Amino acid sequence: MRKILKFPKDFLWGSSISAYQVEGGIENNDFSKFFPAKKACNHYFLYEKDFSLLKKFNQNAFRFSIEWSRIEPEEGKFSQKEIDHYRKVILALKERKIKVMVTLHHFTNPLWLKKINWWEDEKIVFYFSRFASFVFSHYKDLVDFWITINEPLVYASLSYLKGRWPPFKKSLFSFLKVIKNQIQAHKKIYKEFHQLKNDVKVGIAKNNQFFEPYLKNSFLDQLSVKLADYFWNEFFLNRIKNYLDFIGLNYYFHQKIKFPFKIKNENKLVSDLGWEIYPQGIYFVLKKLKKYQKPIYITENGVADQKDVLREKFIKDHLFWIHKAIQEKVPVKGYFYWSLLDNFEWDQGFKARFGLFEVDYQTFKRTPRKSAFFYQKICKNNFLEI
Ligand code: BGC
Fold it and tell me: Domains of the chain (ranges plus CATH)?
């Protein structure tokens, strides 16, 4: 028998992007020299069309980031042209009655930050919060949700510990300094925004993962899971929990851990990037977030799947587990699929295809995948049929 899983009234149904991954023409940030995104999806010029697609596909919320290197191309010099551009972007969403969620830091930094050693020096707290306040002063009455930093630990670890992203450091000390600065910056921005507007909503987009012991009965594997859980999932949130109006959850990973920190996944089903697909993990991660007693938005969840053979089931299964968490009183208020469009996947380039819409990188034509129609129906109905 078919079953209808209803979502709460006023649930947000949307998708997410970030500036560097879709806009095109950004050449003034730390990624651009090493991982050029070139014209990307040309979204900078096609945003109106993209938002019409959102509307047509029944989405009522959208998450995107404002590129710092556009707004402040030189230290202390703010670009009126780009402020006007993002105002038009936000207004184009509002005209379509789409809720606006803005991310202020989605991995990229203007090149001039090199002079203060990027995120390692505590001066970053001043510079980043100055940029944030400047943006806020222009759009505070237009934006529904602010996210200060996207996946702080992913950024800190890939850029400062694993050396995969600029500035390609491999230092535990640098990694820890960056996290400390991220925490300070988040708190400062939270306080400043709240001083200027009582009912502002400020949060974070946190990548949390579901960790399990490789051997259920192994004390050491269990210990590794406890440590991973604490440091990856909890530490950052614990430090900012009094400075959060909501929690944004980016869920992609389930990891089976063998002592000390070996990943031993079974990988029965993987995406085009080789990432294990494990929908029930989102349920366990959400259950753990309940203790913070904050509204939760799934700010990212998606799959690289060029042929679109996994996406429909991926969305369905994750929503099934999210629904179960909601039934058990976890306050999930919205779901943003990653991503609206195929886009530039950082050091992996253009090969990963996360989009509900396929993008032709020559003509910039958008073509809905079959799964886009599947998601459209859910967004329209506010229920999932299983
Ligand atoms: C990031 C996105 C990225 C996605 C898929 C998240 O970690 O916020 O920018 O494209 O995962 O890898």
Answer: 4-385 (3.20.20.80)
Which tokens go with 266? 């079974």
Q: Distance (Å, rounded) from C-alpha 184 to C-alpha 127?
A: 12
Taking the CB of residue 224, how many other CB atoms lie within 10 A of it? 20
Q: Which two tokens stand for residue 67?
A: 């590129």
User: Are the beta carbons of 371 and 312 closer than 8 angstroms?
Assistant: yes
Strand partners, 13: 335
CA distance 188 to 193: 9
Q: Over the chain (386 residues), what is each successive 10-residue block's mean pLDDT?
A: 95 98 98 98 98 98 99 98 98 98 99 98 98 98 98 98 98 98 99 98 98 98 98 98 99 97 95 98 98 98 98 98 98 99 98 98 98 98 97
Q: Are 179 and 237 in contact (CB under 8 A)?
A: no
Pocket lined around ligand 1, Cβ cut-off 6 Å: 18, 21, 150-151, 154, 207, 250, 300, 338, 345
Residue 294 C-alpha to ligand 1 middle, in angstroms?
23
Q: For the residues of 160-180, what is the DSSP string, one character each?
A: HTS--STT----HHHHHHHHH
Output Rg (C-alpha) for the chain, integer angstroms.
20
Q: Which two tokens stand for residue 259?
A: 């002592």
Residue of 67, 249, 345, 350 best suited for mutating to test ligand 1, as the one with most atoms within 8 Å of CB? 345
The minimum-distance atom of ligand 1 relative to the CA of 207 is 7
Query: Could you report how far apart the first and last alpha carbons of the chain are, in Å?
Result: 9
Other C-beta atoms closer than 10 Å to the C-beta of 68 total: 23
For 247, the enclosing helix (H) or strand (E) is: strand 246-250
**Cα–Cα dist 252/363, whole Å:** 30
Q: Which atom of ligand 1 is nearest to the CA of 151?
A: 8
Give me ligand 1 centre to Cα 132, in Å.
Answer: 21
Judged by DSSP in three states, 294 sits in: coil
Please confirm whether the linkage preceding 167 is cis (ω < 30° from 0). yes
Which residue has the CA at smallest separation from atom 12 of ligand 1? 345
Q: Which atom of ligand 1 is nearest to the CA of 205?
A: 8
Atom 10 of ligand 1: nearest residue by CA position: 345
Quote the ligand 1 centre to 273 CA distance (angstroms). 12
